Amino acid sequence: MARNIQSLERAAAMLRLLAGGERRLGLSEVASALGLAKGTAHGILRTLQAEGFVEQDQASGRYQLGAELLRLGNSYLDVHELRARALVWTDDLARSSGESVYVGVLHQQGVLIMHHVFRPDDSRQVLEVGAMQPLHSTALGKVLSAYDPVAHTEAVDGERTAFTPRTVTEPADFEELLDLIRARGWADDMEETWDGVASVAAPIFDRRRMPVGAVGVTGAVERVCKAGEVRSDLVAAVRDCARSVSRDLGAGRF
Question: What is the pTM for the complete model shown?
Fold first, then answer.
């Protein structure tokens, strides 16, 4: 069996470290977090910097991810069939719902946001493509956990952090929730991940009728919900969007 190349493993770990937490870290912090000698860490950082994967702030000397990663990431997203098929339908969903729209896929132990349509108003918003969301508490994550066996295993076996008092963490309660999601065909997140924020999501299937992602809307709980429940018109709009993307991927009518 071929052995992994240690320097590449360390570089990958370094990029993941810089992608989380404070996003900007000093040499000592990087070396300490990865258990590397400062000289080794510095050599890897300098190489990544030369290739554009890492940038160094001249004032503080701290490191952050570089623009080359964004270019490569956008290249991946542009050729990804799911994102390409979802573009028009998610734009329509954002216009009709008046809320932000996200498309997410399973990645490692979470949900990778691969497409984000801004809420169609004049408010200042931050693009969240590339961000990770938890499987057990978000609407996107719960949909994937309900329909994708791999996501289900990750969500059940992984740590289910209680982000708010409403987060479902007990195994039996979580399984019961997934049964409900499969029965009705959609999931919601009513302040289970972020206070004041609610969302609703539905699964996207491919031509083999396999779950390949989820689409959902997210917004302030007072806009997304009515009388303590997710607005039925938003549920219908999200499910219609998911069906449309699924049909474009060859899933047929369902």
Answer: 0.70
